[in-house]
Design brief:
The protein has about 350 residues and is α/β, with parallel strands linked by helices. Helices cover about 45% and strands about 15% of the residues. It has 12 helices and 12 strands. The strands form 2 sheets. Strands 1-2-3-5-8-9-10-12 form an 8-stranded parallel β-barrel, surrounded by 8 helices. A two-stranded antiparallel sheet has the order 6-7. Helix 2 runs parallel beside helix 3. The C terminus is likely disordered.
Length: about 350
């Protein structure tokens, strides 16, 4: 199993932005030094939920300041990006990092109307923009004298430069928040990113994913390859003892939940908008499903249960809410020293 740090640092006060951004750069360098497999980046605007805001700019800084760790997006909100501009940026960062970039794409947030309003985008267009933009990016990377005439863009260019470092282009992975989106990726023979779910839901979706790939004509080798390249998300905190882990992590997790809930209430109060109705509590809002928390042994047992399901990697948020950087960094060190080695395979795939 591979492990990635989901750099998702909150800055609950604008005065904290500068400090949190610098601390996050240092956290990324620490993960590189310790031999973690991946860094994953988020994209959220105007609310402090993700301090660095723009994963593209931030990934360029990481590509220049790290040596071996791969860098992916979980995800770039494709409805907010021009596809040619993003294709150029990805090709450039692919060159800067010498092939360490993974282009994770999603349609856009389901919770924060400010993201769309700030960019002048109609939220109902988000999915269609994702589908068209992904097509444009792949064709622009691979097609000289490219022309595109679509619903949102009419484009004509001779040759996209710089040429990607990775041939034919950087790997692309899609985020899937629902079961049907997951099955769409199975039918297309593509890996995916799964948001926080219970282990039971994770198991069901992975079983359906394998079954749907098989029914779509893919052989066992292709199914295994795609499963190996699929990642699922959890929060995590490792301390010397279970009691210490709960004392340090659970208040930070609760503060994070309160901060995000307050933003959603503010949107509803100001604009009367609820972008996503949820009839039952989401797994991300239930501590027993959202966070792997405890001593190295306790966390290893929890990860072993996920490993049995069969996924390629875990996207792990180590710094939770207002947690001090030094506390999160100690958790990362303990994880890499005492947990990760138990799940290392002799051969680890280098690409997604």
């Amino acid at each position: 199993m591979r492990f990635g740090n989901f750099l998702f640092p909150a800055a609950m006060d604008p005065a904290d932005d500068r400090r949190v951004i610098q601390e996050t750069l240092a956290e990324a360098r620490l993960c590189d030094e310790l031999g973690m497999d991946m860094l994953w980046l988020a994209e959220h605007h105007f609310d402090g939920i993700c301090a660095y805001v723009d994963p593209v700019t931030f990934s360029a800084a990481l590509a220049a300041s790290t040596k071996q760790i791969r860098i992916g997006y979980a995800v770039a909100q494709m409805s907010l990006h021009h596809p040619i501009r993003l294709a150029e940026q990805m090709a450039l960062i692919d060159n800067i990092s010498q092939g360490r970039i993974v282009v994770g794409l999603g349609r856009g947030t389901a919770f924060n109307i400010y993201d769309y309003q700030g960019y002048g985008i109609e939220p109902s267009e988000a999915h269609d923009r994702l589908i068209e933009a992904e097509q444009v990016m792949i064709e622009a990377w691979t097609t000289p004298n490219y022309e595109h005439h679509g619903k949102f863009w009419n484009l004509k260019l001779p040759l996209l430069r710089p040429r990607p470092y990775t041939s034919p282009h950087p790997p692309i992975i899609r985020a899937c928040s629902g079961e049907e989106a997951t099955l769409d990726m199975a039918r297309a023979g593509r890996p995916f990113l799964m948001n926080i779910q219970t282990n039971e839901v994770t198991q069901r979706r992975m079983d359906l994913y394998r079954q749907t790939m098989r029914e779509s004509g893919f052989d066992d080798e292709a199914i295994a390859r795609n499963v190996e390249e699929t990642w699922v998300w959890r929060n995590i905190f490792v301390a010397e003892t279970d009691d210490e882990a709960e004392r340090l992590a659970l208040p930070a997790w609760e503060a994070q939940q309160a901060f995000r809930s307050a933003m959603r209430r503010r949107v509803n109060q100001e604009q009367g908008v609820v972008m996503k109705q949820e009839s039952t509590p989401a797994a991300r809002d239930q501590v027993q499903h959202s966070i792997l928390c405890g001593s190295p042994d306790t966390v290893s047992e929890a990860i072993a249960e996920i490993d049995k399901i069969g996924v390629g990697g875990l996207i792990l948020v180590f710094r939770i809410g207002p947690m001090p950087a030094e506390v999160a960094n100690h958790s990362i060190r303990l994880f890499m020293e005492k947990v990760a080695p138990q799940f290392r395979r002799e051969t680890v795939a280098a690409t997604v």
